[in-house]
Amino acid sequence: MLLTATVFLPLAGAALILLLGDRARRVRLFAAAVGIADFALALLVFRSYDRAEGGFQLVDKFDAWIPQLDIQYHLAVDGLSAPLVLLTGLLGLAAIYSSWSIGQRHREYFAWLLTLQAAVMGVFTAQDFVLFFIFWELELVPMFFLISIWGSGRKEHSAMKFLLFTFTGSAFMLVGLLAVYFSTGVFDMTQLVGMDLNNLLLPSQLVFAFFFIAFAVKLPVWPVHTWLPDAHTDAPTAVSVMLAGVLLKMGGYGLIRVNVSMFPDVAAEAATALAVLAVISILYGALVTFRQSDLKRLVANSSISHMGFVLLGVTSVGAAAGELSPVGLTGAAMQMFSHGAVTGLLFVMVGVVYDKAHTRHIPDLGGLAPKMPFAAVAFLVAGLASLGLPATSGFAAEIMVFLGTFPAHGVLTGIATVGVLMAAGYVLWTVQRSLFGPPRERWAHLGDVSAVEAVAPVLLMAAILAVGIYPALLSDVFTSGVNDLLPRFTP
Amino acid sequence: MTWSDVYLLSPELSVAAAALLALVAGMANAHRGVVTALGLLGLAASLVLTGLLWAELDGNVDLCSVLGEDSGTALHGALAVDRFALFFKGLIGVSTALVLLASYAYTQRFASRGPEFTSLVLFAATGMMLLAAGRELITLYVALELSTLPLVALAAFSGGQRASEAGLKYLVLGAVASAVLLYGMTLTFGYTGSTVLESMAASVSDAALDGSRPFGVGVLVLGVVMMVAGFGFKVAAVPFHGWIPDVYEGAPTPITAFLSVASKAAGFAVVMRVFFTAFEPLEVDWALLFAGIAAASMTFGNLAAIQQANIKRMLAYSTIAHAGYLLVGVAAVAARTPDGVTIGPETVLFYLGGYAVTNLAAFFAVIAVANRTGSELIASFAGMGRRAPWLAAALTVALLSLTGIPLTVGFMAKLFVFGAAVKADLAWLVALGAVNSVVSAYYYLRVVRVMYLGEPSEGEQPSRAVPLDLSVAVTALAVVALGLWPRPLFHAAERAVERLF
Hints:
Chain A has about 500 residues and is mainly alpha-helical. Chain A is about 70% helix and about 5% strand. Chain A has one domain (about 1-490). Chain A contains 19 helices and two strands. Chain A is globular. Chain A starts with a helix and ends in an 8-residue tail after the last helix. Chain B is globular. Chain B has a domain at about 285-500. Chain B is an all-alpha fold.
């Protein structure tokens, strides 16, 4: 029941919030209580997962849901999903704490935010394909409302663009999963891993491509990334945190859970092509990031580059049979967690700066550090983790991606390392222009972050440094999940 | 007609009796509440009797021993009494009851003509129920006319230019469709020498391809294609959809809801019964025909709906698109699996049930909103999220269900139908359907966006109509309940088709 509680607690909280009065303070505190409770549950899930044993654990199953098609209610976690559940709990809490300054329609806002958290939790824990798809689609509804009501700028345009891109991806996924089901008669994802899916109703390459399109939109991979800068820029801070922090991870998770686990042969064949896409994403994302003058858009574009490393790590499965090690896939998973915490923190800090300075235009900023030392430190920690400084989670993740992928794609991996150099460039340049420099007269009245605003940064910095200093905290768990997959690649 | 026939036809007869009583009550100047109550009573009786007959087929009840193990016939074989017919009688009965409930406040504006409105709705419902049960061509034709003609009067009921245009268009195009259908029926009768579907099937399989009959099998195929056109009019599939937008816009909104749900369900019932009883043995690629119509309907309906500013017109085009999704299921039934197993008729029935509650919820919410704002333009829905939060929530649920977002019955319905089609090797059609769902998301969610983002317009009338609110609530809750727990409806649909296919 633990997983069911973890998934549905935020949903129950969302329903209860609608019954509360419209007093902003009460609504916020209630939402925070739900967020803390769910984070505690997520921690419990992570702690309860026995990494020595591996496999799927904490199973919640109810098989009388739609017996005609053998569709079950089936939740479970393995080494891959347990840390992502933790990440979702962490970022959900951070998102609630960075929503303190929401000015209108509090009840609806927090209800949608908690619904979003429940949907993402569901994606990471569902082990029935239909249930997975239901949670996958369910996440669209809160996102659509959150961006289009509480966003800024061209919010309605961005919300619709986000929705249509993702929905198109899901349409492909639906065809893919129906093809899998009607060829095998199985919707159970734990069983599908380990079945031979090379002879389906449709060519397995095509089914693989359908799933890849769905997950590539979410990750996002060049050239289907164009929704991301718009959605991020116009979303409210907390939604950007959730979007970068956990929603993009759904794409990476799906790639490993479905494309790699269920179609190992096709994945190995396609690895080089995917690696090329990954390298384009990494370099293109970094180049575009250099050109940004809006702080939020800059962070958003850097996400494209960083999520490219996830795809690159996944392509390590293209290595020859003897050389394949769990390092690449583990690195990809680590990068997902790391990027979630790091970019989450960056968006929180951008939100804090914007709330105080009322601008995100980088040339207008500058000289903020003396006025808000805590914010400057948090920003700097996130920035350094983003460029992969040792002792931060970013380093641990990226080094594993490179080590794991090099045997498979030596040259492409070499090119991809340029992305890290470019990250160092745009991160340091941005931090210098926006935070440091001579103190300015116009910022004289600004103060540092409040205690409430400090909650999210402290949580996220703790996660970044903990994973950076002792990566085995996470990598052991991820590796236990990845080790279950590797035998499939050595015929 | 014997007493056992009366019992077997009691679901239809009780509705027809209620229709007559409503007319009488109208002449006696009864309060319109009495008239509506009479109608609801007749429908309730019809539903109870439908349940009773279903139990009789199961062998749980035995009031008269005229029913066989799983099916029976009434009126010398003209009408079938099987679970397939009973499923549709239940569906049509429930939809009609909800439509009557929702139109209670609406009939106020027709003053003394209110009872006629109720009576016509009930007559049309009788026709639709007979249509679902007919197993003989002449009966089917009469039932079709009985269901169409009251609707023509209803479409023009509110008077004025638009309503008259709606009525006239429906009448003329309906007459053309009927004529084509009748001609098709004549040709098939001429070829097979029978009007009873089973005998036609026997004749087709005996001698379909021996070439000994005058004009050969081509005549039969021509007849069947003409019947497709006639029924295509009823279910509003492209290219027989020309009447839809104008009629839907001009008719009173409860009637639009009725047309889009009950009339369409009856149309699908007859399509499935006729084609898969009588013409299955004919070696023609029906799947390709239905798949083509499905593809055209989905694509045209969705693309045309995008540009609409009037919500009734938008929903009109959306019903064309949904006829397309339903035909995806019909195409799957026609295609069968490579090893000859029929697949997916139950998914079509499930889709019809889910679509019925969804579309009723959408139209009822539109009535409620239009009562407040006096306008059916999408722009006038602005700010409903704040003015009438529950109403806006109900309409949002209905629109999400029409899009096919999970936790609503619309998702489950699409999942089942598309699943059947993939199994039938129609993956291309499913891909097209899925892409169409994306297109539809754009215009459905545009309404949602307007409701929650737009500023409320001035001059709104607070409007409370308890029966209408009740029907909105019931249908919207059903959309979610069936989305979470589709099992009972799916089970009923499975039982309904088990003998027929």
